Every structure is written in C-alpha cells, then in structure tokens.
Amino acid sequence: MLKSLYIKNIALIDEANIEFSNGLNILSGETGAGKSIVIDSLIFVLGSRADKTLIKSGETSAFAEAVFQCEENNVFQQNGYESEDDLFTVSRIMSVGGKNEIRINGRIASQSVLKQISASLVDVFGQNEQTYLLRQENHLGILDGFGDNAKLKNIVSDLSVQLDDINKQLDKFGGDDSERERLADMLSFQINEIESAELFDGEDEDLSAQRQKAKSMEKITYACSSALSLLSGENSSLDKISSALNYLVQIDNIDKKYETASQRLSSVKYELQDICETVENFLSELKFDQYEMDMIENRLDKIKLLKKKYGGSIAAVLDFCKNAKQKLDELTHSDEIISQLKEKKENILLQLYAAAKNLSLFRRETATKFENKIMTELQDLGMKNTTFAVVFSDMPQQSAFCGCGKNGFDKIEFYFSANKGEPIKPLAKIISGGEMSRFMLALKNITATIEKIPTMVFDEIDSGISGKIAEVVGCKLAKISKHYQCLVITHLPQIASMSDAHLLIEKSVTENKTKTTVTPLNFDGKLKEIGRLVGGDIGEYGQLHAKDLIQWADNYKKSL
Length: 560
Known about the structure:
6-stranded antiparallel β-sheet; 15 strands; 20 helices
C-alpha cells in the first residue's frame, strides 16, 4: 500500500507530506483547489511522462517521493531491491534544464523499470481511462485480461509468426511465374555486369594512387632534376665534398683524428653518390602515357558506377554479386522450393485456424461470465435494468481463412443498454457520463481480484451521479476498500462520508501568490467538510445532515 507522498514545488503546492491509511482515503475540496495535483504528483513519481509545466512557477525543479509498504516477495524484490522494514521509497526530480532523475531506495533507476514496478503497485482511473474503455480496439484486451487465455494466445502468436515467415520466403520468389522470370533476368544481368568487370578488393585505391602520381608527373620531374643538379655535376655538392676529401686525405697520416674525419667524409661522398643514382633512376622511370592515363580514368569511372548501383565499396559490390547468385540459384530451383513452402503454409494455416478457433471459443465462454459479472455489479450500483453484451465478429470459415495476427481473428465490441426493452447498442454511442462512471467502477471491482494491484486511485469517479446512486457508489467503494487501498477524489457527501481517512485540499492567496495545501481531517473537520459538500454554509442543518451521513456510512461499513 501507499504509506505517504511527499510533494515539493509541483503546480500550486510549495511543499506537502501526505500520509495515507488503509481502506478508503477521500480527497475533497472546492473546485479548482488543486485536488488533481495530488494525483498528478503520484502519477509523476510513478514514472509517467511529464512536462516542465508541472514545475511550480518561479522554481527550478519539481520533486515527489512515494513510500510503499509491501509484503514479502513483492515487485521491488523481484527487481533486485531489498528493505529490512518492508518500506520502499520511490523518488523523482525534474528540472527546468531537462534533468529527470529517478531513484528507488536511493539507487538511480530508469523510467522503464519504474513503470514496470509501478504497474503492480497503483492503478489510476480518471478521464483517460474512461476514454480508453470507450475505444473498441481496447475491448479485446479487457476481455483477455479477465480470462486466463495466455496459453492459447501464445499458441496462436507462435503459429502466426511462422506463417509470416513462410509468406516472406514466398515473397522472395517474386510472386507468379512471369514475375519470377523477370526477377531472374534482372539478377542475371546484374551478376554478368559485376563479373565482367573483374573487380578485386582495393583496386580503386591502387588506381587512385596511380592517377595521383601521373597528375604529379611535372612536379616530380622538376623536383628530382633540381635536386640532382645541386647534388652532382660541375660545382655541385658532390664536387665540393670530393675536393674537401682530397685535402683531408693529405693529412690523415699525421694524426688519427684527421684520418677519422677523412673516413667520415668519404662515407658521406659514397652516400651522396648513391642518392644521386637513386634520383637518376627516379627520372629514368618517369614517363607520361596519355593512353594509360585514359585507361585509369575509364576504369575508375566504371568502378564508381558499379559502387553507386550495388554498394559503397568494391567489397559491397562483390557481396551483392554473391547474394544475387544465391537468389538466382533459388529462383532456378524455385518450383521445388515454392511447392515445399506452400505445403508447409497449408499445414500452418490448418493449425493456426484450429488454434484461433479454440481461442475464440474460450473467449466466448469467458465473455458470458464477464457479461454476468458486469451486470451483477451494475445492478449493485443501481442500474437494475441494464443489459451488457460482448459482441463478436463472425468466425471465418476455414476455407476462406488466410491467416490472422497474434491475437487471433476475433474482433469484439462492448454493447450496452441502460433501459429495459431498449436494444443494446455500442457502449461508446449510448452510455451517459454517470453510467460510464459506474460502469468503470464495476469493471474495476471485477478486474481488481485478477490483477491484485494493492492501491486504486479514482479521480472523480462520481462524475454525472447524485442522490441515491451516489450512496450506492459510496457503498461499492467502501466494499472495495475492505480489500484494497483506495484514493478517491469526490464532490459528493455520500461518498466522502465513507472515508477511513479524509484529506482536505484548499487553495489560498498569500502575498499575491496562490498555493494549495493538504490537511488531514479529524472527526470535527470531516463533519464540517461533509456539511460543506451537502449544501455549503447552511448552518446547523447541514451539520445534522453530515452527522446522519457519517452515521449511515459507519453502520454500513460495520455490516461488511
């Protein structure tokens, strides 16, 4: 259960630390006081998407922290979080600069992990959930959530995946015979175009280097000729070194150091002569062949075209050719392969139809139980003449069956009639706001026992109801709260009187600033607030009515 919720700098709330109890927690206050801010803060800390408008005006960040008390082997422990006192803390901060940090028991956690955990902790019902319930495409999921058909759905899903795989393999063969022939011709052309080019990996890099060298021929010739002119020939470096060596040789027998210097200079002379020969060889090798240059350019253009058509590199072009050969080989032997695939497809279709039919039959049995439970709950909620039905689409004939998705071939829609003798019509087209509130409450009362989510939040579940029906809804909420913790925003005194804990949400203006506060009420505070809900400031008669309501609620809760 949710033990507490700490809120800081969210919307109109500066700071609030709210304690919740077991059973039915009522949140009430004037319209616009900020009751939904508490629920929005809870939804925020549980990992829902939120934008910066949630941050209180003038502040740099919004912060919320929820503390949960859980039994052994809970969803936190299943995700690797431990606690010695069975308390688990979830916190979240969002800043105007974009920082969004989530922590579970002090450890940083991702939003996806938090949402996975929170889905097993709190169920929130408000206008969004009513909209979800009215959409036909969601009805099948609701029915499946009521019935335990996971095993049957898995069989259908696995077979559907197998069928999709076979259809993809058949699509690779290009459909009919004429289309496969066109595909084979195209592949043959592509293979021939690539193979006739006789490419090898890295060829384009070698050719580019040759082209660059050819384009630099004049520069290389000038550089080598100039260097050779300075190194050899008349009055060159080599000439001067030779003359210097002749002088040193004349004195190398006088002292060892002269001989050493002479030998070193002799080595320089030989090295310089070798360099001269090397540069001469460079010059002798240099020749510009326009025909060869044209050949290089043409070859590079051809390679460029092939890379543009079949891949960004020669390696990719060669891989394309390899794959094309494999596809062509498959097409060449396609008749045999297609025959095998079609036979396999027929077999899968038989199995898939049987599995989807079993799933559909199970759903239809489940739907009957679901209809009865919904109508029982609605009768408890004062809708005595209600008719509710799950309407299925026609089951396809096996001869016309060509496959289905992972959910089978069923399409369903909830149909509804609130009045005896009136035909049932699609739920979304006929149900009123008050009826919708009770329908959602009935549905939640049924699914709660299946989902076993410990905390349920109802945001203005009393929309569109009043009088006797409000009493009935209050009794139903009290009944649910015997087994689950409930947080309920309400404007109705009949519902508020059933509270096990009552929180008053108030808005005030201080120093030209609007803020919202949350105050837990004692008996006198509860009495005063229910009196306000009864009829505003009407003196002692409102208080007497409030006392009667609280006494009625207490007597009902004792009878449970």
